[in-house]
Design goal:
- The protein has about 110 residues and is of the alpha+beta class.
- The protein contains two helices and five strands; from the N terminus they run ββββαβα.
- β1 and β2 form a beta hairpin.
- The termini are far apart.
- About 15% of the residues lie in helices and about 30% in strands.
- It has helices spanning about 50-60, 75-80, and strands spanning about 1-5, 10-20, 30-35, 40-45, 65-70.
- The protein has a five-stranded antiparallel beta sheet with strand order 1-2-5-3-4, with helices on one face.
Length: about 110
């Protein structure tokens, strides 16, 4: 078993399965994880079953953690099962360092 915390800090218990043996639970959240010396790293979250197995293969993950929902589904976990909507606004990111202006008393340093 493994505990994961949601956005509100609430702990939820997950069963751990090999990446190719994820059960097809209809009311469950799966987290595809890679093992590291520091512990598992979450790579993907979504429905259990075939979507989780596909994500695990794509990301070369070793295991999938599954939380089966009870009577009440926490909103902080349920949002991972809803289709994502693309952002409606463009992001304003700073220009890359190679395009940043160079001032008179400043020289570019090779990275």
């Amino acid at each position: 078993y493994r505990f994961w915390r949601d956005a509100d800090g609430q702990r939820h218990i997950f069963s751990i399965y090999d990446a190719d043996a994820v059960p097809d639970y209809p009311d469950a959240l799966a987290i595809v994880a890679r093992r590291t010396p520091a512990g598992p790293i979450a790579m993907w979250a979504g429905p259990a079953g075939e979507p989780a197995r596909r994500a695990a293969r794509r990301m070369k993950a070793e295991e999938v953690h599954v939380h089966v929902f009870g009577d009440e589904v926490p909103e902080t976990l349920a949002r991972f099962l809803r289709p994502h909507q693309a952002a409606q606004e463009c992001l304003a990111l700073p220009p890359p360092a190679s395009m940043a202006p160079v001032f008179a008393n400043q020289s570019r340093q090779a990275a």
